[in-house]
Amino acid sequence: MTQPPKPTGEPVRQNVEFPSAGATAHGYLARPPGGSGPGVILIQEWWGLDDHIADVAGRLAEEGFVVLAPDLYGGNVAHDPDEAGRMMRELPVARGVELLSGAVDHLLTLPEVTSPTVGAVGFCMGGGFVLYLAAVDPRVSAAVPFYGVIQGEFPDFSGLRAEVLGHFGDEDAAIPAATRERLRQAVKDQSGIDPDLRVYPAGHAFFNDRRPSYHRESAESAWSSTLDFLRLRLD
């Protein structure tokens, strides 16, 4: 696959407000140096919309995407696992999906967005929300869950229209091989889409370069394939 030339310059980054789920939502928007490109929803880990997610948004924008990272915690960021777990549990899945659908609404109204559909990329809790969102919103055509944690039962994938590229660590005790296989089978049986679930020699959160769990080789491989996947699906 021939890659388009990478835009030169710096992404334009800003905090934004937009209507979602009957209220005013907040998020972080990163536009590519070229000014326009396909749209991507970026979904936070259980820590919140922190500096790592803002950095990933900028990296995606540098590659030519218009990226919106919605703030699912209303401005709060966790500082330890207990706090992160509590904040995740206090966010009902249905409410999170409603907020994310509102973010898709907003992203697709931006004149800079050149794609009729969007990609969704998320990590940990956000990876689970990628699957929840794609299962109900056909405007998501490319779903990329990184070690996605699904809270409770799998969603009904019969309405899924997105191709799925998943990234998992084979040392991730939270998402064992049996769970990955159940996910693969559920997506395939219910939607007819055969997800590409890739496994790396790493543990949970291997992409987060601000955590001890970071595994450079796995992160770089997953990132490269994610960019190719998004370009192909959102062209």
Automatic annotation (TrEMBL):
This is Dienelactone hydrolase family protein. It is an enzyme of class 3 (hydrolase). Residues 27-231 form the Dienelactone hydrolase domain. One of its GO terms (molecular function) is hydrolase activity. It comes from the Bacteria. Its EC number is 3.1.-.-. InterPro entries: AB_hydrolase_fold, Dienelactn_hydro, Dienelactone_hydrolase-like. Keywords: Hydrolase. Gene3D superfamilies: alpha/beta hydrolase (3.40.50.1820). Coiled coil: none annotated.
